[in-house]
Amino acid sequence: MTTQTNTSSTTWTLKPPVTRTRDHPAMQSLRKLLRNPTAVAGLILLAAFLVIAVAAPLIAPPAANARDPYIIPRDGFSSTPQAPSAEHPFGTTEGQYDIFYGVVWGTRTAFRIGLVITLLTTLIGITIGALSGYHGRWVDEGLMRFTEIFQAFPFLLAAITLTAVLQTVYGRGEAGPLMIAAKGLALLTFGHNPAKPLDPVQLQILTGMMAIILFGWMGYARVIRGNVLSIKEHEYTMAARVVGVSDRRILSRHLLPNAIFPVLVIASMNIGSYVLTFAALSFLGLGAQRGYADWGQMISFARNWVPSLAQHWHIVVIPGLAIVLFVLAWNLVGDALRDILDPRLRGTGGGL
Amino acid sequence: MAGYILRRLLIMPLLLIGVTLLIFVMLSALTPYERASLYVQDIPKRQGAIEAVIEKYGLDEPIHVQYINWMFGRRDADTGMIEGGVLRGDLGWSKVGKSSVAEVLGRRLPATLELALWAAIPMLGIGIWLGVLAAVRHNTASDQVLRVASIIAWSIPTFVFGLIMLMIFYAKLDWFPPERLSEWALREVQSDSFHAITRMYTIDSLLNMRMDIFADSLRHLVLPVLTLALLNWAFMLRVTRSSMLETMRHDYVRQARAKGLHERKVIWRHAVPNGLIPVITVGGLVLIGLLNGVVITETVFNWPGMGSFMADAALSLDVISVLGVTLFSGMILIFGNLLVDVLYGVVDPRVRLR
Questions:
Q1: Which of A148, A150, A164 faces B317 most closely, judged by CB atoms?
Q2: Chain A: nearest CA to B35, how far in angstroms?
Q3: Which residue from A112, A242, B118, B340 has the fewest beta carbons nearer than 10 Å?
Q4: pTM for this entry
């Protein structure tokens, strides 16, 4: 929003309030964020990860004949992991997958998965929360009971279950609404051309993402609903209704912009938890397939080497550090944002 | 008080129907052929045998009829007996567990329960203690350190933490091994002279006066308990801290200080009892954390409980077992939340009046 210059006109129009002399609130928040040392640490980490993700083909160039750059190149087929060396700076895992390559390209996977899941969960949450809060009465009652049902399951267990179900269903390879959903998600996540058949490697990742999305929107719905309920009673909403503004316009122009700030805070904190959940699915063997550049998947090899982990420390510590730093970066920024944007949320845990 | 509990109880059936419906919807994503394994131990190879199973259990009937059959069981046309039914405890047949899902759950629950109960001690104890500490020293260096520490703890995946614990304390130092008992102790526990009462080895060994087995089971518990407690520890800390900060602003705390009480007494006798009341409300979330946590923790430590069963079943796409465990956990959560609500009402009279 910029300061409105008053042009004189002969017709009557509702003038927007011209009260702004200070900075834009977003600029104020940004300045506060940059004064917070933990937030700055988080932002620096995020910037570093972003650089690695963007420059992945330069840092770890895929082989010239590679079909998919996200498949980690192998150096032989021996099962014993190799310690870090000049040829493999971070060593190799079981099956000789290069850990350096996997960590670098895994950064892209983590961003993709975290951002796409967050985008879709917030969209679902905002829609359900806004409808519920604005319409009230039986719509509210129905939608909130619906939300409670999804909250009645432990998140990870529900995600595992749905992943297993979806993998069985997609295993049949039938066309239908589910296949269209998968293609849409593939387009959004991997930029996959919907006209072509789905890559089974990508499909397995998509099932995990779908499961997290379907059981991850409830926090947003509740927060948006609460905010819409409280803002609905404000005078400016009443005024809009009195002058005959339509329902949809009130919702999109008055209620949502004011209700949405806390959602951004929760979203930034949740990106980390979504990445953690997907990593857990991969660790259990349900997320990314063996050999895909995904941090959780790389660590899952370590399960076979528990008694000799002291010798093969690098197969856990290096990809593990990548996950911890990535999630930590989002959590540091999210924590600071919460303090700045919404003091009421201060001190509560994550959104889930 | 009765009205308050009654109101909570009235929501329950609605929630139970919703939860079972959601599970059933996921189940119906499978074809009748795939679902036939819900009822039979091994699908016979004979031609037409699967069709007979589908026919017998009505797997091709309209969806609402199937839901009712699945919930309440179905009368067998030949024998006239009612078979199956989730409400009668029949969650289907587990391919991975090679017995009924309910049986596997019964067998594996004690191990999970033992782990969760022991994990609750450091989680609640350390979490609450540090939370009070952070609130008392609000905005000092130690508050900031605890804040950052809890964000870090919040960012570590359970499986990475567990594997690093194993790397240091098992592979390197050989202090705390994975699994539930050493081989010799396991043989002892399974012998006839050992009375299995709760099947939680720490308790059974004490009841059997076997201190060596007790020590061995404790030794195996240390790492998984620490791993399971880690995530919830940070959560407890933050909740306790914010609730304590709220309480310490009240007049009666200032009053206690004004009349010259020692600061320690002001905090632990006057502020903490009230400050901890809202902490009860997150009991449900803690339960969620434990249920989520056991899946990963048990997998990392080879702990033969419900969580590792869930992970194994999911990996072999044994959907029936996975749905069974999830339905069971959903039930635990619904009843756990009810308990939390009631407990909150009992402890804090203000809630009842609302």
A1: A164
A2: 12
A3: A242
A4: 0.88
